Amino acid sequence: MFLMEYDFEGRKDLVHFVKLVADAGLYVHLRIGPYVCAEWNYGGFPLWLHFIPGIELRTDNEPFKAEMKRFTAKIVSMMKDENLYASQGGPIILSQIENEYGNIDSSYGPAAKSYIKWAASMATSLDTGVPWVMCQQRDAPDPLIDTCNGFYCDGYKPNAENKPTMWTENWTGWFLSFGGAVPYRPVEDIAFAVARFYQRGGTFQNYYMYHGGTNFGRTTGGPFIATSYDYDAPLDEYGAPRQPKWGHLKDLHKAIKLCEDALVVTDPTTTSLGQNLEASVYKTSSTCAAFLANVDTKNDKNVNFNGNSYHLPAWSVSILSDCKNVVFNTAKINSMATIKRFVAASVDDLSDSKAISSEWSYVSEPVGISSNDAFNRPGLVEQINITADQSDYLWYSISTNIKGNEPFLHDGFQTTLHVKSLGHVLHLFVNGQLEGSAIGNAGNPGFTKDISVVLKPGKNTVDLLSLTVGLQNYGAFFDKKGAGITGPVELDGLKNGSNFDLSSQQWTYQIGLKGELQGLNTGGSSLWVSGSPKSQPLTWYKTGFDAPTGDSPIAIDFTGMGKGEAWVNGQSIGRYWPTYIAPTGGCSACSYKGPYSSNKCLKNCGKPSQKLYHVPRSWLKPSGNVLVLFEEIGGDPTQISFTTQELESLCAQVSESHPLPMEAWSRDNPTRKSKSTPKPRVLLECPHPNQVISSIKFASFGTPQGKCGSFSHGYCRSPNALSILQKVCIGSRRCNIEVSSAAFGDPCIGVVKSLAVEASCA
Question: Which terminus, N or C, of the chain has the lesser number of Cβ atoms within 10 Å?
């Protein structure tokens, strides 16, 4: 019998979170799961489920269904007790049971269908008073609504005509894996996907992710999911707007809101305007809204609609909130862009400012078996079944005696240790010395490795430290994916061509590290010794630091370290691994045009997948903070540095053909607020209320080239652009200026001109 303990304390306070959402004027789609995927360790399930006798996860299995029902009922009860469902006047308008089961349900055979029917019945019996959905489940039983997840859902149709078309996950980017380059998704493509969804009758759209995050502690799944879960979201991992993504989507939402009166009362009528061209009209007796789409991946097009001519860039949608005026085009960005950098100081500089202590102390983690709880078993064991995920680490230890006449191939008793593992990482120690390591990757966590070793006459101790880097979170039977050294483990290179198989011998096992049991991660204990030995594997380090001044987001740059985990004031900021480098290829120029995939747009090729690690300011005291590191393979802690996220530049690039700023339109009068004939405008605004625009780094009106941070003048330009922008903007927090020849003069008559600006704030 397993005792279930619920933990809704601190950051896990779900009721408090839902109330905060309500206070912000937002609604909640409560996706209970309880399987959630989310690149979360074990898909969000607690690992103890795995050890319930007779259990099979996510299928028609009584032990699993009992636990699933208990958890779902608990969450629903918590919400009901606080009157948080919309039926009670609260913010929760939808609930979800299961998650993307339809992607893999065929693997479970007939039991999948009966399981889904049971899950639907169980959920609806809880009587929440709001609809339930199942995402990626085309056969979701009535009354549950089947919904779509993906980069595009404009072609999705639910399994019954009386069900609305809902998009529960619009992927704004993609997750990062250790060993991979950083994915990103252009905002023009996201806006295109959203506009197409509503153009074709969509009802509900939810971004995944809208706010990036951090996989603190050991919460990452995968395996090999990175600690950062920034996801290229409109609000980044640190909570700051990612511009222009955040601003362009905000403008998109305003444009769709202008069309609301038509969208909510009628279905669209769609007609072809030519090859790859569509017009969809929502029209009633009192209102009209239209979407004009060019789905060509290369060519801009001019179209005639309702007697007017419209220019449609390739892979774009124009929104006409009154069926006449273009209030928004997905490929034309009015929002400003920003360049942000994490500004690091050296350890010495930080020490001078008392931000971090120059004094380090350390504790050496013993190699091999050091615990009284170690145990012996014949043969090799699968890791997860032994550790129950209490730790990333499992020691496999064996001793072998080498006689002087052993038939080894080379002098000096040199041989090769052959190891096969299900993953995810392995460090080999022979007689206490690190001889080599092996790592898997996100696509193939297992590996086979041959490591050269030199043995000595007499007793030799072979210690294999096997590590997990997050447990599997997706796929059919993901819960049965193992880890650890399952063999063979053998010494190769004997003179007679044979090998010595250690796999079936008696092994000694230890779960976790001695330092974990001693609580070294808190920084306590009397074991710490002054110093910071470099390049030494299996070492705990500790230092003190003061919180960096200001309110900018904080990250630690782990350059100089190898692989391990870090704690601030006893709270884990996650696994660090700056030495896992992304492949050098794949980061070519990326166009927003054409279908997006997770490997289409990549950056940071040939660089660490992640070197910056988020430290929430809420975890810090003004002074007297404690940083603890556990380093596996060797590094130099004096090389790490605290950094803060700072604004480097504001930019904008707007043409004379851009739609007017959204502020020029109103829902009451969607034609526009002003009766004059306004022009497109460039708007710049320093994000911090105490900042003002201090300089104009670049300004060009004409045919400027490039992007934010690398603008250049084109073949024609106004000579006055820089001085005009300096006069209008410097000294103000916010400035805007009309993009027109009237404002700057006409440097090239008959050409559609653009204004490109880069500024800085101080």
Answer: N
